[in-house]
Design a protein that fits this description.
alpha/beta, Rossmann fold, 4-stranded antiparallel β-sheet, disordered C terminus, translocase, ATP binding, ABC transporter domain-containing protein, cell membrane, amino-acid transport
């Protein structure tokens, strides 16, 4: 469970203050996929980065499975962050390292010994069906393959939360479906609580259980995706209503109980 409690993030630039996230409270159930949508500049990415304190909120708290991250000192926060994987629109891979080395690096930062690093990195690449690309450099991989390496890198430390910032914005529609299928399967099989920020409505419709709509830094609407098929239900916001068109069809797998879920 992720509890975002009254979180605000205020940026100060050249003496001017700007509230990017405005008193947002949101409860994200353990093992669910939470979508966050909104127009450009609504504060989605900032809120996502607030969850792992990549962007420390100006006020409010973020509690992940009972641990208040905002109350931790640097050392404890570093340790907790290994429980929270993140993937980005532009993959953020190191181009001078192979796929395997990219994944190994996150394990190194998490303090995993050299021998286990290699094995766990290989297993993580296996989950995204890229074992055969272990020795390829990112320059030799397609966009979808790069994002799958990034997913493997995020998964290798066995996180309980996966944060996804526009995970499919830089890939074509067919690759989008494949990346989403991996995210959906991983969520179903490993029970990882997943938060996806996107401006692509079809992404939310394909994978999310719940959706939160942001406008001007504030959370203005929340509903379950299942509500969309309820007779008479219509989202209150314009962006919420955009969800009623466009589709990607995925094979959604039934969830395993989280306590039974293991990665490696
Ligand atoms: N480090 C920063 N310093 C100053 N302003 C910032 C900073 N980061 C974000 N902002 C501003 O905060 C607002 C929200 O940005 P954010 O990236 O969270 O929005 P978003 O909803 O993710 O937008 P997009 O969909 O375009 O990525 C924007 O107006 C942005 O310019």
């Amino acid at each position: 469970m992720i509890s975002i409690r009254d979180v605000s993030t205020v940026f100060t630039t050249a003496g001017q203050t700007f509230t990017a996230v405005d008193a947002v409270s949101l409860e994200i159930p353990r093992g669910s996929i939470q979508g966050i949508i909104g127009f450009s500049g609504a504060g989605k990415s900032t809120l996502l980065r607030n969850i792992n304190l990549l962007e420390r909120p100006t006020s409010g708290s973020v509690v992940v499975d009972g641990t208040d991250l905002t109350a931790l000192g640097d050392e404890d926060l570093r340790r907790e962050r290994h429980q929270i994987g993140m993937i980005f629109q532009h993959f953020n891979l190191l181009n001078n390292r192979t796929a395997l080395q990219n994944v190994e690096l996150s394990l190194k930062f998490a303090g995993v010994g050299k021998k286990d690093r290699r094995r766990r990195a290989q297993e993580a690449l296996d989950i995204v069906d890229l074992a055969d690309k272990a020795s390829s450099y990112p320059g030799r991989l397609s966009g979808g393959q790069k994002q799958r390496v990034a997913i493997a890198r995020a998964l290798a430390t066995e996180p309980k939360v996966l944060l996804c910032d526009e995970p499919t914005s830089a890939v074509d529609p067919r690759t989008t479906a494949s990346v989403l299928q991996y995210l959906s399967d991983i969520n179903a099989q490993l029970g990882i609580t997943t938060v996806i920020v996107t401006h692509e409505m079809n992404v939310i419709k394909a994978v999310a259980d719940n959706v939160a709509v942001m406008e001007d830094g504030a959370l203005v609407e929340q509903f379950d995706l299942a509500d969309l098929s309820r007779p008479g239900f219509s989202p209150a916001t314009q962006i919420g209503r955009y969800l009623i068109s466009d589709d990607i069809t995925l094979e959604r797998r039934p969830r395993v109980q989280q306590k039974e879920a293991t990665l490696v």
